[in-house]
Amino acid sequence: MRFDLPEIPPDSEKLRGELRAFLAEAGRDWSPTTRARSWMGFDRDFSRAVGERGWIGMTWPKPYGGRERSSLERIVVLEEMLAAGAPVGAHWIGDRQQGPLILRLGTEEQRNRILPGIARGELAFCIGLSEPDAGSDLAALRTRAERTATGWTLNGRKIWTTFAHKSDYMVALVRTSPVPEGGSRHAGLSQFLVDLRLSGLSIRPIRDLAGEESFNEVTFDDVKLRADDLIGQEGAGWAQATSELAFERSGPDRYLSSFPALNAGIDALNAAPQPGAEVTIGRMVARLATLRGMSLSVGGMLERGESPQVEAALVKDVGNVFEQALPEHLRNLLDPGESTSELREILGALAQLAPTFSLRGGTREILRGIIARDLGLR
After folding, report:
1. What domains are there in the chain, each with its CATH number?
2. What are the C-alpha distances in Å from 17 to residues 22, 23, 38?
3. Is the pLDDT of residue 91 over 70?
4. Residue of 79, 131, 248, 345 marked catalytic
């Protein structure tokens, strides 16, 4: 397992300057809670404005709405968006993994129909993986697509589907043939592009303990799909879906979700210094720098066409530990009376959000199992 630091493109600082100017203007009225939510915030107007500047799908070919820029330049965009606490949820999933999936394995019709809309910030995606009886044990999923004379009929349920109630499309992993007797449960799974406006499809938001309704249960009742809604090869869905996880697990969103609190906390400590704060802050910044280097390394591997699934799992696991611990470190450092109202609001929002950081994109236990298997420990 290696984490070789790649060369950052020389013109990335110009791009970073453009982003900071844009975000300073766009974010003038963002509340501290909005900044704390960051990539869990959903704002279609903001996503369209980002798309207008060519910062969505920016690595894709120009005929599909892309700008043919490098993966490392894209990471610069992600870093600045997260550091500012921008509400990027309306385009995040499509840009991060569903667009690249369609670009790599989709038909030409799918690419032309879907990718430009994602790049413009007009199409929002959700991920159809977990089911009521198949969460971490994803291979146990039961949602089925059965072939018909004109396409497919989809029946079943997906759950914990983030932003399904606000999205336009889902990429769903479903069973298209039974498990072979004595064979792998990973066989017979396929991925489909599902228009969330189709007849027979219903979406029920799930209210969590924080009062949020970002998670959803999606039910398919004889939903009719076209033959060309299949993505990639029939029966190859497991390999396709797991290859996406390197994109989902290695990005800056796996260690920068609490970053707005760090900025506000350092400002508060500069105004009211606390004994020993420099040591704690120094350790947090050092860990942040290490995680950034690891994430950039995975970005370099993806740029070269490699599949760094284990390295990505490690970035997510270690990154989640960091971003969940950061708000608590700040609370321990600061007297509540010395905290700014902005910092108190950010920390209050993160107290509700942080427990989810180690669930989304794969639980800590699943990630450590992947890492242990690669190291020969299981």
Report:
1. 12-123 (1.10.540.10), 127-239 (2.40.110.10), 250-374 (1.20.140.10)
2. 9, 10, 20
3. yes
4. 248
